[in-house]
Amino acid sequence: MIAIVDYGMGNLMSVEKAFTYLGLNAKIVSKESEIKKAKGVVLPGVGNFGQAIANIKSRGLWQAIKEALAEKPFLGICLGMQLLFEGSEESPESPGFSMFPGKFTLFKGDIKVPHIGWNSVRFIKNSPITSGLDSEEFFYFVHSYRLPFLSAYAPFTLGVSEYHEVFIAAVEYKNVFGFQFHPEKSGKKGLKVLENFGRIVYGNICGY
């Protein structure tokens, strides 16, 4: 079973429906024991970084997520991807899981935020989670905070996008994947991403 973690923030039903449409066994879960039993874990999320961390901790899910990051196929979506990093200027007092280095900051300059809508993502390396996709595809975004694409982040950067600046749109390290965009809202290309994650979970295909 793929566990879709419910910590009170996220597009849970749309993610679950997308997996169900693909014929993959995925379930919304809210207990530590359910995360531990799962073969793979999805951490979705929409909203405030600090509130997300507080919710995860108050519901007793922090340790189970940490353990899943170390040993299972893991997918972070939108805010769920941001939570895998060190933190965000949105909530400086709330450290993330620190699976990846870097802190998210608000888009700079005289531009409209949040960044909402379809935008292209350029994949800069091959990965089992992007199998069957072209090197550049369009996906749906909704976010105000971003991680600029810097050379120091290149080792784990899977894809980049641009909204007045180049920012990181997809990451990968061993069994852990993250997407700033919403694959569950991105039509056939997004479904392909989720299908590939399902293959990684059930076929034990990992990027290492």
Automatic annotation (TrEMBL):
<keyword id="KW-0315">Glutamine amidotransferase</keyword>
<dbReference type="InterPro" id="IPR029062">
    <property type="entry name" value="Class_I_gatase-like"/>
</dbReference>
<protein>
    <recommendedName>
        <fullName>Imidazole glycerol phosphate synthase subunit HisH</fullName>
        <ecNumber>4.3.2.10</ecNumber>
        <ecNumber>3.5.1.2</ecNumber>
    </recommendedName>
</protein>
<dbReference type="GO" id="GO:0005737">
    <property type="term" value="C:cytoplasm"/>
</dbReference>
<dbReference type="GO" id="GO:0004359">
    <property type="term" value="F:glutaminase activity"/>
</dbReference>
<feature type="domain" description="Glutamine amidotransferase">
    <location>
        <begin position="4"/>
        <end position="197"/>
    </location>
</feature>
<comment type="pathway">
    <text>Amino-acid biosynthesis; L-histidine biosynthesis; L-histidine from 5-phospho-alpha-D-ribose 1-diphosphate: step 5/9.</text>
</comment>
<feature type="active site" description="Nucleophile">
    <location>
        <position position="78"/>
    </location>
</feature>
<dbReference type="InterPro" id="IPR010139">
    <property type="entry name" value="Imidazole-glycPsynth_HisH"/>
</dbReference>
<keyword id="KW-0456">Lyase</keyword>
<keyword id="KW-0368">Histidine biosynthesis</keyword>
<feature type="active site">
    <location>
        <position position="182"/>
    </location>
</feature>
<comment type="function">
    <text>IGPS catalyzes the conversion of PRFAR and glutamine to IGP, AICAR and glutamate. The HisH subunit catalyzes the hydrolysis of glutamine to glutamate and ammonia as part of the synthesis of IGP and AICAR. The resulting ammonia molecule is channeled to the active site of HisF.</text>
</comment>
<keyword id="KW-0378">Hydrolase</keyword>
<dbReference type="GO" id="GO:0016829">
    <property type="term" value="F:lyase activity"/>
</dbReference>
<dbReference type="Pfam" id="PF00117">
    <property type="entry name" value="GATase"/>
</dbReference>
<dbReference type="GO" id="GO:0000105">
    <property type="term" value="P:L-histidine biosynthetic process"/>
</dbReference>
<dbReference type="InterPro" id="IPR017926">
    <property type="entry name" value="GATASE"/>
</dbReference>
<comment type="subunit">
    <text>Heterodimer of HisH and HisF.</text>
</comment>
<dbReference type="GO" id="GO:0000107">
    <property type="term" value="F:imidazoleglycerol-phosphate synthase activity"/>
</dbReference>
<keyword id="KW-0028">Amino-acid biosynthesis</keyword>
<keyword id="KW-0808">Transferase</keyword>
<keyword id="KW-0963">Cytoplasm</keyword>
<feature type="active site">
    <location>
        <position position="184"/>
    </location>
</feature>
